Amino acid sequence: MHHKRKAIQDLYPDELAHCYGCGKNNPDGHQLKTYLMGDETIAHFTPDEKFTAIPGSVYGGLVASLLDCHGTGSAAAFACLAENIDLENVAIIPIRCVTASLKVDFKVPTPMGKKLELKGKLRSIEGRKILVDMTLSAEGIVCATGEILAIKLKD
Amino acid sequence: MHHKRKAIQDLYPDELAHCYGCGKNNPDGHQLKTYLMGDETIAHFTPDEKFTAIPGSVYGGLVASLLDCHGTGSAAAFACLAENIDLENVAIIPIRCVTASLKVDFKVPTPMGKKLELKGKLRSIEGRKILVDMTLSAEGIVCATGEILAIKLKD
Q1: Do residue A26 and residue B50 have CB atoms under 8 angstroms apart?
Q2: What is the extent of the structural domain holding A42?
Q3: Do A32 and A43 touch, CB atoms closer than 8 A?
Q4: Of the four listed, A10, B2, B122, B130, which is most buried by Cβ atoms within 10 Å?
Q5: How many CB atoms lie under 10 A from the CB of residue B137?
Q6: Does A52 contact B98 at a Cβ distance shorter than 8 Å?
Q7: CA distances in angstroms from A111 to A55, A141, B18, listed in the order given
Q8: How far, in Å, CA of B9 to CA of B23, rounded?
Q9: Is B2 a domain residue?
Q10: How far apart are CA B7 and CA A7, in angstroms?
Q11: CA–CA min distance B107, chain A (Å)
């Protein structure tokens, strides 16, 4: 799959790009990268074996972590869309979001060794509150769903 | 603080003790340890600097991960209490729980470099469904609350 656009997290300003989950300036971290594709967001991640739950499956904390970072990135992207900010023409994303609440429902064990796909869809924007619905899948099977309430930071 | 009891996670059978969040057999992992204290559970954890969100605070994925592992451990402990299983007299905990759903509310940024305290309280047990309410605090300030729906595994 080609991503012509830059990842949302690569548009975070350098001084705010240290997140273990998705910061480009955190060499130890997951460096999750969320892309806006039409009116959805997408990210891919293949967990290292050490992030095991019981042997053969990915531990819940990583699933939650990926959904959290994908969620805040998605929320920022959707807020930009809503304000007609074209992310192809910015070096730094002008909107940044933090998580107020994250809910993860674990449907089936997330298999180890597979490329995971995260998707995000905007549910609503009300003032500074942005709700995003997410799925985390492996080989087309939804392993977990996520719901994030993200808050748009003031400048 | 003295913990006379063994940690709940140290009572998991060896073949199920590889969780990155809390398995004693995962040398790369967090090895979170949950203790039953009366009718509450408690755990402590000091995050490594690399688990940063923005500089100075702990990233949300780790907060969620700690609450998840503390939650399933707490659920197993509370289920044992309810069935009059004395955890001081077992080598292996006879009840094991998995997460069906986890909700985390982020109240204030979790400060980096502090010892975090997690607490758990049983809300309800209905059949195989166990609900546990949690807090994650730093220096007495609740940074996040968690709510877990854990499911008791069948033998």
Answers
A1: yes
A2: 8-152
A3: yes
A4: B130
A5: 18
A6: no
A7: 9, 10, 15
A8: 7
A9: no
A10: 41
A11: 7
Tens-level pLDDT at each residue, chain B (155 residues): 445 679 999 999 998 999 999 999 999 999 999 999 999 999 999 999 999 999 999 999 999 999 999 999 999 999 999 999 999 889 999 999 999 999 999 999 999 999 999 999 999 999 999 999 999 999 999 999 999 999 999 87
pLDDT in tens, A62-94: 999 999 999 999 999 999 999 999 998 899 999
How far is Cα of residue B35 from the mean position of the Cα atoms in its chain?
9
- Tell me the residue type at A35: Y
Residue A60 inside a domain? The answer is yes
Q: Which residues of A touch B19 (CB under 8 A)?
A: 52-54, 59
**Residue B77 corresponds to which amino acid?**
A
A1 within some domain = no
Q: Write the ipTM.
A: 0.96
Alpha-carbon distances of A38 from A5, A50, A152, rounded to whole Å: 11, 34, 21
C-alpha–C-alpha distance, residues A99 and A66, integer Å:
13
Give me the helices (H) in chain A, please. Answer: 60-82
Element (H, E) at B141: strand B141-152
Distance from the B128 Cα atom to the nearest Cα atom in chain A, whole angstroms? 16
Q: For the domain that residue B122 is a member of, what is the CATH number?
A: 3.10.129.10
Whether the CB of B66 is below 8 Å from some CB of chain A: the reply is: yes
Q: Say how many domains are in chain A.
A: 1
**pTM beyond 0.80:** yes
| Yes or no, beta carbons of A61 and B59 under 8 Å apart | no
Residue B3 lies inside a defined structural domain of this protein? no
Distance CA B93, CA B58 (A): 31
> What sign does the CA torsion over A151, B68, B111, B38 have?
positive
